[in-house]
Structures are given as structure tokens and as C-alpha cells.
Amino acid sequence: MTEGKLPALVLDAGGGLSSSYWKDLAPRLARATGSKVITYDRAGEGESDEISGPWRVENAVSDLEAGLKELGVTDDVVLVSHSIAGEVATGFVNENPGWVSGAVLVDANVPDFFTDDMLTAFAPAVEKQKNALLAQPSTKKNRQLLSVMVDYAPTHRAFHELTWPQDVPVTAIVASQTPFTDSPDAAQLWRDAQARFAQAGPNRKHVVAENTSHEGIVTERPDVIAGAVEEMLKAVR
């Protein structure tokens, strides 16, 4: 954590990634904004202990809530969430009204994407990825990714039912390549879902980060993310 003023920036990386994902962007944000900047490793990531069983977003939300309470940060938070951390952000903002002043979602999972049709069509790809991970040497990262695939469809059908509160500003930054480089159809569904999400509220913004990949977006276009965060802070301060 870097000390600073509120709103506090809470940076949350995607699946299989750790707080080191933000190692260059976090100090840049601290210098540019003067905000308190918090990074952390979710259970099973980085330096955190592994927990057996399937990954559950409710547990990740509870862990984040407990961690912020321990730091004394229980309001005026701006979430900066990448990939699956978008699910944590959505759960957190619903479970803790009044804590979150705004959010910047970085090519993040949004409820709009996980329709029944998408989950049915995507099932073979999930199984293929699962088998590929099982064929590799077992690592902490692989085990964490596999835990996300347990009950993937029912878990994400439940996520699809969630909505982002209308009173919490949010910017959705989308990588130009999307997570689905091998499936043009899935890539388009992702882009469409991100656009629908951004259009569903009066205080939402949609930004496409050109020349970026899903995992590499933070190092490929840190300027886009930093700019969105600074703009969000100006709006909520």
C-alpha cells in the first residue's frame, strides 16, 4: 500500500495474476493522483495461501471487505479491476453500498456477457482450456485457473443476474484484441457486452484501448488506464 489521500485506489488483477501485475502502474498512479493506492493478492494468487475447492466470487468479495476494514478504508474507494476481478468489483459494489465512489474496469468481466447462449457456445472452449491446463505441470497459477472452471456455467449464470448500481460511476476499458483471439464470434460478443454495459447508465463510459491484448493491456497502454483513473477521481472528488 502507498499512503495518500482519498479516494483510495484498489487495484485487483485478473485470474492467475498477482499484485505484481500493477508493479509499474501503481507507483505511476500514486505520483499522478496523490491517492492511497492498495494492491493485494487474492486467495490462491501471488503470495496468498491457496484454498482448496472451486473459486467463488462471494469469498473473494468477503476477503476484500475484510482487508479494507483492516486498513481502515471503508468508504471513498475507486476500484481498478482487471478481467475476472470485474466479478469481484460487481459483487463488492452491490454488497457494500456507500463504499465505492467509482470504478475503472480494465477489459473486465461484466454481467452482460454471460448469457445462456454464450455459456452454451463457450462450454467446449472452457473444456479445451481445462484439458490444456491439466496437461501442463501443476503450478499455483494453473491450479487457480482450474479452480475458476469448476461450475463455470452455473457460477456465471448467477453473475449474469447482477447489475451495476446506477449511482456508482464506472468506466469500461476494452482491449482491442479481447480475451478471445481464436474466436471472432466470442470476441464480438465480448465487445457488444462491454458496449451494452457502458450504455446502461448515465454515468458510464466506454473506452477502447487500441493495440492491446487482454492480459497485456496494463503494460501496453498504461496511459489509457491512468487517464481513465485520473478522470474518475476528478468526477468523484
Q: Features of this protein?
A:
237 residues, alpha/beta, Rossmann fold, six-stranded parallel beta sheet, 6 strands, 16% strand, hydrolase activity, AB_hydrolase_fold
Structure characterization notes:
By secondary structure, this protein is an alpha/beta fold. The protein has one domain (5-236): Alpha/Beta hydrolase fold, catalytic domain (Rossmann fold, 3-Layer(aba) Sandwich), CATH 3.40.50.1820. Helices cover 46% and strands 16% of the residues. It is globular, with a radius of gyration of 17 Å. 41% of the residues are buried. Keywords: Hydrolase. Residues 10-227 form the AB hydrolase-1 domain. It comes from Lentzea cavernae.
The helix fraction, in percent, is: 40-55%
Strand-residue proportion: 15-25%
Number of strands: 6
CATH class designation? Alpha Beta
Q: What is the CATH architecture descriptor?
A: 3-Layer(aba) Sandwich
What strand line-up does the widest sheet have? 2-1-3-4-5-6
Model regions low in confidence, pLDDT < 50 over at least 5 residues: none
**Most strands sheet:** 6 strands, parallel
Q: Roughly what is the average pLDDT, rounded to an integer?
A: 95
Distance between the termini: 20 Å
**Outline type:** globular
Q: In terms of structural class, how would the helical and strand content be classed?
A: alpha/beta
Instruction: Classify the fold: give the CATH topology.
Output: Rossmann fold
Give the tally of structural domains: 1
Number of helices: 9
Task: Spell out the helices and strands N to C.
Answer: EHEHEHEHHHEHEHH
Radius of gyration: 17 Å
Tell me the name of the CATH homologous superfamily.
Alpha/Beta hydrolase fold, catalytic domain
